[in-house]
Amino acid sequence: MIDFDAVEKLRVHDGDLLVVPESTEQDDMQLLGEAIQMMNGARAVIVRGPIKQFDTAAMNKLGWYRA
What we know:
Helix content: 25-40%
Mean pLDDT: 86
Low-confidence stretches: none
Radius of gyration: 15 Å
Strand order of the largest sheet: 1-2
Number of helices: 2
Strand content: 5-15%
Largest sheet: 2 strands, parallel
Number of strands: 2
Shape: extended
Structural class: alpha+beta
C-alpha cells in the first residue's frame, strides 16, 4: 500500500532513477512505472532503497572493475 503522507511531487524525466522505500511491493513499483510512462512518456528505473554510489576503489574491492 502506498503511504500517501510520504508522497512528494516529482518531475520525472526519461532515464531517471527513482528510489522507493524497501517495503514497496513489486506490483506497486510496476504500477508506478506504468503511470509515469502514461503521464509523460518517460521511462524510469525504479529500485528499492537505500541505494548508494560507490567510487572506483570501492567497486574494485568488491570485484567490479571499471573499463
